[in-house]
Specification:
- This protein has about 160 residues and is α+β, with helices and mostly antiparallel strands.
- The chain has a single domain (about 1-155), classed as 7,8-Dihydro-6-hydroxymethylpterin-pyrophosphokinase HPPK (Alpha-Beta Plaits), CATH 3.30.70.560.
- It has 4 helices and 7 strands; from the N terminus they run βαβββαβββαα.
- The chain starts with a strand and ends with a helix.
Length: about 160
């Protein structure tokens, strides 16, 4: 069994129902063995044009028997089912499911980088992750994830 951590966000349509439906679809998958979720928080969009709608963000911890490629594909299928048409950065979206950690795996391929390459600079990702697992450690750096949050606070991020 693998523990996966996913950052979840929505800034189009009915955000809360979008997120609830995404969680239902992940939980309904035959390989999912359990889930936990953080609180949902409203955040301003990062790196997006002025006037972009705010996001509802949080994190999910999933216990799964799936292999990595199956699970990554599951996240993509859920996004597509909920109306996401593009995976490009800095675009509004009804749902965004970013795989942050897959167990202790460190991976760098053209289609998937683990841990997620930008999570360390995003308070809206790190805060909810720590709510789920306060002692979480970055498998790539060996640094406690809480340290990233402290660094962001010190730098006003």
């Amino acid at each position: 069994m693998t523990v996966a951590y996913i950052s979840v966000g929505s800034n189009m349509g009915d955000r809360e129902p979008n997120i609830r439906r995404a969680m239902q679809l992940i939980a309904a998958d035959s390989m999912t063995r359990g889930m936990g979720q953080s609180q949902w928080i409203w955040t301003n969009p990062v790196g997006m044009p002025d006037g972009t709608a705010p996001f509802l963000n949080g994190a999910v911890k999933v216990h799964t028997d799936a292999d990595l490629l199956y699970f990554f594909d599951l996240l993509g299928r859920v996004e597509t089912e909920l109306g996401r048409t593009s995976k490009g950065d800095y675009q509004s979206r009804p749902i965004d499911l970013d795989l942050i950690f897959w167990g202790e795996l460190v991976l760098d391929t053209p289609t998937l980088i683990l841990p997620h390459p930008r999570y360390r600079q995003r308070q809206f990702v790190v805060g909810p992750l720590l709510e789920l697992e306060p002692e979480l450690v970055d498998p790539e750096t060996g640094i406690a994830v809480a340290e990233y949050l402290r660094t962001m606070a010190e730098n006003g991020i």
